[in-house]
Structures are given as C-alpha cells and as structure tokens.
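Posting this for the archive.
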Amino acid sequence: MEGTRPGGAAPAGGAGSGSGSGSGSGSFPSLFPPGLHGIYGECRRLYPEQPNPLQVTAILKYWLGGPDPLDYVSMYRNIGNPALNVPEHWHYVSFGLSDLYGDNRVHEFTGTDGPSGFGFELTFRLKRETGESAPPTWPAELMQGLARYVFQSENTFCSGDHVSWHSPLDNSESRIQHMLLTEDPQMQPVQTPFGVVTFLQIVGVCTEELHAAQQWNGQGILELLRTVPVAGGPWLITDMRRGETIFEIDPHLQQERVDKGIETDGSNLSGVSAKCAWDDLSRPPEDDEDSRSICIGTQPRRLSGKDTEQIRETLRRGLEINSKPVLPPINAQRQNGLNHDRAPSRKDSLESESSAAIIPHELIRTRQLESVHLKFNQESGALIPLCLRGRLLHGRHFTYKSITGDTAITFVSTGVEGAFATEEHPYAAHGPWLQILLTEEFVERMLEDLEDLNSPEEFKLPKEYSWPEKKLKVSILPDAVFDNPLH
C-alpha cells in the first residue's frame, strides 16, 4: 500500500537544500541517508521553490517485506519553457532503484566508483491539464511496476529501451499504452557516497510507435517524438489525451525515416521475454534419455548456471560484438478486468537461482536435431518478421526467452560468433536452449511465407507454417495453450 502526503518530503527536502530554507535546513543532513540526500539535492537544484513536494510513499518499506521497491516518488510542478514550446507539466522522480542507505538493507554496497544500486532512478513528465491543481498519483504506481520488474529480473534499463505494457498507462481509454526510456532532459547524474545515480525518463507512446521502436530502435523513435510538439516535444512530455500517432500526424515519418532506418540499420532488439515452446520432432515424445527440451506434461530440466549466464548475455549484449543491451518487453499486471501477461518473477528471469546447479553443466551435452517444432503465442509470433528482417538479414541474432520456464529459442544468422548451431547442423540444443541457424536465402523465403504475421488481426488461431524440406514447423497458438501447464 502507498500513501500520499504533502509533508512527506519536508525533512529530506531540507536536507537536500543547498541554500537555507529556514533555520532547520542545516540540522537535517545527518538524520537522513546520504543516497536519499544526494537525489533530493538534485531535485532542489531544479525546484528550489518546492522544498516539500507532494510525495507518494511506500507505507511498508521493501526491506521490511513490503511489495513496493520505491521508498518514495516525489511530484513537482514544472512551468515548462514557452520559448521551446514546452508546456507546463508534472515531474515525477523515484527514490529506491539506487542505493539510498548504503547498509545492504536493499542494495549491496559495492563502492563509490560504480553505479549506486541499479545505477538509476526513474522520472516521468505528464502534461498538466487545464485547471489541474494537484498531480495525479497513478504515475507513482506505474513507476512501482517498472521498479518491481527491475528488482525481480535484475534487468536494468538503458536509454532507448522500450517497455511493452499493453494497457493505457492511466487505466483510461488512452492510446498511450507503452513506454520508451531516455535520459531526463533536466536532471544531471548525481555522485553519492554509494555510487553514481543517473535519471531515466519514462515516455508514453502508442502501439504503432512501440512497434516502430522494436523494428528499428528506440533512440530513433525518441528523436522523431522530439520533433513533434504534441507527441512529446524536446522534453518528451507525455500527454495521455494524445489521439494521434506521430505517423498519423506526419505520414512521411514512417517511410522516410523509420523504413529507411530499418533497411540501413536493422533492429537493436536482440531478445524478448515471451510465451514460447519448442519440441524436438527427431525423437518420440517418450524418449527422455538426455536433457532434451520440453516434454509435454513433464517437468522441464533446468539450465545450469553457465547456460543461464550465456543466455543472459545473448539478451543483454548479443553474440556479436556490436549488439546494444536491450530490455525484453514486459507487461502490466491484471488491470481493469483485462488479462495481461505477468511481469517475470525472479524464478522466471534469466538469472534465476532455481536454474543454477540443478544439472551439472558437464552432464548437458549439445545435441544436433533433425526436425523441430516452434510454438509462439500471437504477440511473440508477430515479432518473427522483425527477427528475420531486422536482425538475421543484418548478420545478427534474436532470442525468445520463455516467461514460464527456462526454455529459450535463439535464431542466428550465418557467421554469428559463439553459436553452437551450424549450417551443417542448423538445429542444435543445449538443455532447454534451442538455437536455429537460418541462411539468408531461407530467411527471404520465410519472410514471404510469414507475410500475414504483419497483420495478425486478420487470421484466426491456431495458425501453422511448415517447411517440410527444412524439417521446420512453426505454430502460432492462443495464450491459453501456454497458460495451461499440460498443453
């Protein structure tokens, strides 16, 4: 549970003040944690006239067993910048993803030279509506949701990352249903006694803009949003009442900027958390003499710690040198009676403790498979053309990591270093991790055959694609198949 209080930040706000705000300002610093004090100092630099902002606070702190990792979310009124066409807005700042205390109660203290905690705090800029006298508090819960993802998965955010949320951010009927992340335009990195803290701003976007970021890259779409005042402008302010995408506002942006960027640069998205599975069709289902992946109705074997580390690096850095760290899209919890994929728990993450050391690494051998069957839900299947066009045709890879277990499917192109699939043996498995090597010629053919995946609303599930001579089958299945452990 969270509480909203106007006086919640008063002591810390005083502590963060570089100049006097009454006789008490000099007596507070020793009473408040240095990490908290450092962030408040940066907030006070921007908002010296708002020493005591309205604040949402976690009633039961995370280190005491509470559900919300952020101790506080402060909310400021920003007058904008009329000269730059920046409107008045509410500015939200989180406290808790960085190390506030330095005593290992939440984050391990690793010194002053590196990142503090996860190394960043979140911010959000929401356009102020006419007549609005107080900031809405829903962005605080949104930030808590993102923070829970970070704590549970230990995947950190980077500028340019995108988050697939699948629900209006404010639970309204808004088209703003997903997020990009970028550097906050006003807040500067802070050096605290526990390390450096940077500030990443959440930017609300429409589904079409998210898809463009996935197919190309987040930074490119952020730059386009900055050029369209009603879609964010230079400070990327989210307007939940925005009814048009940037491509509807300026149709030339899609063809002249995005399509050209995809063709030239490919996609920076190297992996996603997904509903997926795979079957080895080379052997009968009852043959379980080794650590073959996914036997229907049985407990899949776990990845070793070394395998887990390699898949994590596949998603974070990629198998090739120049891959950018990318956040796997995540989804909101159940909201407004609608079902959404749950955010991955620590057990489901790539760094799952339950994945490590259950099977010794040396007992899991890499196996060449003759025939495989890939299974995806509709959302994951819709990313296959992106995987093929934006990644493999540019000499890169793409990984699907199951959100319900240790299963992983990595598509690789010819020449990707570190892959255990080869042109001679294009299907290879290491425990529940499958790699599939696709030649450029076969990728082009698949793109033609899978063209209807670009318009998934036009076909009914289940949908099956098959390439018998390649001994490959792909099925797009309803979500319920993956939600049922006996599928």
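The CA atoms of residues 35 and 144 lie 19 Å apart. The chain is about 25% helix and 25% strand.
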